[in-house]
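Data availability (excerpt). All sequences and predicted token strings are deposited with the supplementary files. A representative entry, Ribosome hibernation promoting factor, is shown inline so that the format can be inspected without opening the archive.
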Amino acid sequence: MLDFNIRGENIEVTPAIREHVEKKVSKLERYFTESLKATAHVNLKVYSDKQTKVEITIPMKNLTLRAEERHNDLYAAIDLIVDKLERQIRKYKTRVNRKFREREGVGAFLQATMENDSNEQEYADDENEFNVVRTKQLDLKPMDQEEAILQMNMLGHDFFIFTDGESDATNIVYKRRDGKYGLIETEAN
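Structure token line:
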């Protein structure tokens, strides 16, 4: 069962919008064997040019689903984003099942009803999409996030991996679409 956390920025989340989001996103539950215990974080944003952006993140134990969509029509954006999430699930399921078959097992995380899905071949054909074509070795020098951003900009990259000088953790800074910067902090398990 999915729980929903729906937030609106520059838009009121009306009961009609909430119902539409819950109805569409709940369709994803059919792809999971065990009852899905997750919270769907839905952010709705309306810009001054009347364009809407919908972001949905569903963190789960083995997988995090995330997609965003911009569209002039909020309801159309929700429909498109659910299609994106379904494609992500199918790709993930195809790869997981292939790996389990190679290890003489079968993926139990996603329902076997998708086994005969006519679109599965489309996702199986995408397996070469993740071919590694280049490998780099990095020497992670201890630094603070400001220095990491400067290094990233000097190199002309969109992200930069570094060791935080204070915590000794591996972190990543990245350039966001809005021109600002983000920081991903890692934790050892």
